Amino acid sequence: MTRKVILSALGLALIIGALFLAKHLIDSKNKPKPVVPKVVKTVLVDTVKNTTIPVVISANGNLMAKERVELYSEVQGIFRSGSKLFKAGQKYNSGETLIRLDASEYYASVQSAKSNLYNSIAAIMPDLRLDFPEVYPKWQAYLNNFDLKNNTPELPEMSGEKENYFITGRGIISAYYNVKNLEQRLAKYRIAAPFTGILTEALVTEGTLVRSGQKLGEFINPSVYEMQVAVSKSYADVIKEGAKVELSNLEKTKNYQGVVARVNGSIDPTTQTITAFVDVKHEDLKEGMYLEANLNAENVDDAIEIDRNLLLDSQEIYVVKDSLLDVIPVKPAHFSDRTVVLKDIPNGTVILRKPVPGAYAGMQVKAATTDNAE
């Protein structure tokens, strides 16, 4: 009997507990959800004010000396030492000897030919005195001024056909030009600096045998450099000779002034670019230095310049209207690495200054003009 009472009491307690648990679950389910406060993003904005935007084309390249000479030997001989060592970095003044080859053997043959010419003219002097007394004085003066140590002087001008036939028939003319030809070749044993500059490459040393056609080195003028840059063909009609160019090194620590010296008249069919050559002068510049150039191409009227990240793929930008984001179509006029130039956006339009993550048309925002705004 007692056992039945205990079991009945336990069953009744379980039933009552289940009822209370069910009521608690129903009450908790009907509780209102907490209201999450709506977050309004603060965005940086600018007000459009159209102006004239200068279009600057960015390009880069390496400097090359505008005046450079590759030195080659046209004759063969032993490289003789001079007043300066033929080494890279050596400076020479205009007209100063760069290379001198041993020409003693060839010089002797030149002197022999000059002596033969002198003797040939001297041999005809008695005939000239008898047959052509009127031209004898000028030929006598020519012999008097003939110096084997100096270059052969030009022959006297012929006064008539008889004199010409007489001189030519004695082999004087052919002997003269043979001597001049030898003298021209003798001059090639010495290579002089064509301008004041510096030797950038030396491929031979004193005492070595230099052969005809052998490259000897390179010589440049370090006072003027030029940089070759390639720009889009769309700027072919705006890149002009004489245009000013701003140049800088990669570290952006030094700036230089340049000018467009030449513009190629043809477009590269592979890259569809046109080549411009920029001249630049500065004592800090060296051949091979890498520079960045900004060329002033044209001016775009009634335009603004914004960050490229603000331009959507659909050629639209975000604007702020009544605290809501909206989009408007735009017309890009020029792209650079970081910015884009846009035309025909109405003055007074409020646009974003910085991109907003997760932005969409209709998004509620709070406009601010400074980074410190809350």
From TrEMBL:
Where in this chain does the record put each Multidrug resistance protein MdtA-like barrel-sandwich hybrid domain?
68-216
| Transmembrane feature ranges | none
Which Pfam families does the record cross-reference, listed alphabetically? BSH_RND
Alphabetized InterPro entries for the sequence: MdtA-like_BSH
Coiled-coil segments: none
Gene3D superfamilies of this UniProt entry?
2.40.30.170, 2.40.50.100, Helix hairpin bin
The name under which this protein is listed is: HlyD family efflux transporter periplasmic adaptor subunit
Q: Which organism is it from?
A: Winogradskyella aquimaris
Q: What is the lineage of its organism?
A: Bacteria, Pseudomonadati, Bacteroidota, Flavobacteriia, Flavobacteriales
